Amino acid sequence: MIEINDKHLELIQEVINRHNSNSFMIKGWAITITSAIFALAGTIKEPYLIFIALAPTIMFWVLDSKFLANERSFVSLYSCVANENKLKVKKAELISDIQKTIDGDHKEYTIKPYSMNFNKFKELKRNNWCNVFFSYTIRWFYITLTGLTIVTFLGLKAIKKPPENNPVKIDATIKNIEDFKIAPIYINTKISSVDTIKTKEISKPIQKKK
Questions:
Q1: b/e for 130-155, b at 16 or more Cβ within 10 A?
Q2: Burial of 87 (0-12, 13-18, 19+ CB in 10 A)
Q3: 193 lies in a domain?
Q4: C-alpha to C-alpha distance for 85 and 111, rounded to whole angstroms
């Protein structure tokens, strides 16, 4: 009978705690960077800048999944050490590629004393990176973050509407046609109200030229 090594379990537990802290830190960085991009896009009134936030969101999603997959593998390692350095796993709990290589209904893993080799436990479905990427604890956090990105874009898009081209109406009474000239009118600012442009009245009546 192999004696359970408490020191070995303690070392594995420290690694599990460190992975858990890294995962929490990654989520914090994802929120911080995404919020900063939202604030920048809102300040300069550029909605399409929001989509830059999708790049760090996907990057942190992948990185967080890697850390969680490793953490789960270390948990399996911990279980193996706690079970006298042996762990029997059902065939159905393994990834399909490994299931094809074994006979019987179980696969047994063995660990040497003080071994920190966790890679062999990635053969378990729950420890596989692809399964972790779409796991409940991971996907809903980053899907929510992606949804907030789209909602923020639509919100800024609705706020930033193009100015309406309202025509300028000018009411004028012409008293003298001889010296009457119309100069070009340049408008560089948005018209917020209808203004009345008055021309100077000339008392001399209009006479037709023969």
A1: eebbeeeebeebbeebbebbeebbee
A2: buried
A3: no
A4: 5
Q: Which residue from 156, 120, 171, 126 is spatially nearest to 44, judged by alpha carbons?
A: 156
pTM: 0.70
Q: How many domains does the chain have?
A: 1
Which string of DSSP letters, residue by residue, matches 3-33?
PP-HHHHHHHHHHHHHHHHHHHHHHHHHHHH
Strands (E) located in the chain: 86-90, 106-110
Tell whether 186 is covered by a domain: no
E strands in 44-194: 86-90, 106-110
- Condensed to tens digits (0 to 9), the pLDDT of residues 142-200 reads 999 999 999 999 998 888 666 555 665 656 565 655 555 555 554 444 444 444 444 44
Domain that holds residue 45: 6-159
How many whole angstroms separate alpha carbon 106 and alpha carbon 68?
25
- Is 117 strand, coil or helix? coil
* pLDDT tens-digit series, residues 12-24: 999 999 999 999 9
CA 110/CA 113 separation, integer angstroms: 10
Do the domain assignments include residue 190?
no
Contact of 60 with 29, CB cutoff 8 Å: yes
- Say which DSSP state 174 is in: -
Backbone angles phi, psi at 80, to 5 degrees: -65, -45
* Domain assignment of residue 189, yes or no: no
Tell me how far apart the alpha carbons of residues 61 and 151 are, in angstroms, rounded to a whole number: 19
